[in-house]
Amino acid sequence: MHMDPAMPHIVGITLLILLIALVLKILKQPHVIAYLVAGIALGPWGLTLINDADLINRLGAMGVVLLLFFVGMETDAKQLARNWRLALVGTGLQILSSLGLVFVLGHFLDWPFERILLIAFVMSLSSTAVVIQLLQDKGLMNDRIGQGALSILLAQDMALIPMLIILGMQGAGEVSTFTIIKQSIGTLLAIMLFVVLVKAKQVRLPLGQWLKGDKELQVFAALGLCLGFALISGWFELSTALGAFLAGMLVGSAKETQWVHHTLESLKVVFVALFFVSVGLLLNLGFLQQNLLLVMTLVAVTLIGKTLLNSLILKGANYSWRESIVTGAMLSQIGEFSFVLTAVGFQAGMISDFGHQLALCVISITLLVSPLWIGIAERKTEV
To answer: How far apart are CA 148 and CA 141, in angstroms?
Structure first.
């Protein structure tokens, strides 16, 4: 039997990720950084072991879906509903503040309005995948910090839809009336399901009793529920991660989390790792080397500015200064959905190739250094 030519690459990728993760574990760094560094090392600027970046991106997207499914299972719908003011006000203030800052900058640089809008939207989003992974690693998911961050992140994910519509109106591709209607119906259905989960005392899953003793059927049932909701959400032109999150909350409300956790935990680890590897692959080290000062300046301004802004928003919501600063640092990076907005803007001619590469570098590095920045915030605010 002949060996598959891809096998040495798979073994090499696995061993490299393991080696980097072990080294960084000794340095007391989270696994997220190891996956990002591995992506840089495996890509075109490193060992070039990964040539099909598109495949890794698709597998990584599956990781985000599974991650949000698990988060949904651990989220109390009633507690999340109590944070709706923080979610809406926090997200709204982030977007408006980003618009104001970029508008001033764009005025001096003579930028067109659509470019100002695009850059403000890109800056205002935080990374659901990075923050949730760190919250889980630190055991803060059910803490006040975790619940506050999660409510703002989910509101930001919902805000992506009107952002894409507004950019479409500014010339970033055509947004058809049918698409807007589908998105509106999908959003309404998502809100209705959320209200049901908040109001219901208990939810029962169909066939739940039948699946308890059958490990093989549990795998397909859990995957079918997670990916099925993600598929429905995607058909409505909404985030697939949002659909997976709602599926997770449905499972959590039905008190069926134990066997689902055991069934999908290993799959989640692999696919989430692939998502962060895919982010590392995007980093163009050649461009970074040529524009290092500009990129690092923008990274520093982003991390400090978003931390301060989010800290003030959370302090206004009666969080302590420590909780406000740590949660603000948690939300300080630029999120993975900003890659989508950047690609849309580039294809529509809103930003040049230089602007596109600059955005990719800044987004990737804020994701890479985010765990370190959060660690600094935690240490500086320790009592």
So the answer is: 10
Tens digits of per-residue pLDDT, 328-375? 999 999 987 888 788 778 877 888 888 888 998 999 899 889 988 998
Q: What is the per-residue pLDDT across 198-244, written as a single tens digit (0 to 9) for each?
A: 887 777 776 666 766 676 777 788 788 889 998 998 898 777 878 88
In a domain, 359, yes or no: yes
* Assigned domain for 31 exists: yes
174: domain range? Answer: 27-380
Nearest-angstrom CA–CA distance, 340 and 279: 12
- Please give the distance of CA 53 from its chain centroid, rounded to a whole number: 19
For every residue of 8-43, DSSP letters joined together read HHHHHHHHHHHHHHHHHHHTT--HHHHHHHHHHHHS
Compute the distance between CA of residue 179 and CA of residue 280 in angstroms, rounded to an integer. Answer: 32
pTM above 0.85, yes or no: no
**Residue 18: other Cβ atoms inside 10 A:** 12
- Phi-psi category of residue 360: left, alpha or beta, with phi > 0 → left and psi -120 to 50 → alpha: alpha
Structure tokens at 192: 């209705």
* CATH number of the domain within which 74 lies: 1.20.1530.20
